[in-house]
Design brief:
Blueprint lengths: L2 E7 L4 H10 L6 E8 L6 H7 L4 E3 L9 H13 L5 E4 L8 H6 L4 E5 L11 H7 L4 E8 L9 E8 L6 H26 L2
Parallel strand pairs: 1-2, 1-4, 2-3, 4-5
Antiparallel strand pairs: 5-6, 6-7
Bound molecules: 5-O-phosphono-beta-D-ribofuranosylamine.
5-O-phosphono-beta-D-ribofuranosylamine binds next to helix 1, strand 5 and helix 6.
Length: 192
Amino acid sequence: MSKRVAILISGGGSNMVALIEAMANDRFNAKPVLVLANSANAGGIAKAQINGIATEVVDHRPFKGDRAAFEKILHNTIAKYQPDVICLAGFMRVLTSDFIDRWQGKMLNIHPSLLPKYTGLHTHQRAIDAGDTKAGCSVHVVTAKLDDGPLLGQTEVPVLAHDTAETLAERVLVEEHKLYPAALQSFVKNDG
Ligand code: GRF
């Protein structure tokens, strides 16, 4: 049976679009039921609407200092759509273990590094500064520890001599758009 997928974004949502386009194929065992952003300014919201996907915005800013209250509304908003899987796709809020526990084993994330290297931010600059010859991206199941949890897939991208964080990020992003749909497809297949 087709799995119901909610996608959480904070920005332009290019990974979200890649997921939606992949799920448009009948052979994909999942369909997008919600795109949710934590800011009304997230460019991805308009892109989701163009694709005919339901959208919600749960702005974190009114909840400053009260993460539990933000996550309660976040959880309730997502739950209305009864997703089987949540894909974090450039969702730039750190989630607490309370929230994560409620979606345990059902939430995936894409991270622009070869995990376990470079959890957190500025991954491309850190890879360049370290003199790494390869960078890349990872999709993993979300657990309480940031950018941790069982890996579903990784793609390597060579670091070139003249790379800046921007040029490397661009090439990694191209691979993210292939890796995330592939990882989601195998996740929903293996999940029954
Ligand atoms: C991606 O590199 C994602 O891995 C990272 O933020 C970027 C989001 O890009 N965490 P987009 O919003 O999917 O275009």
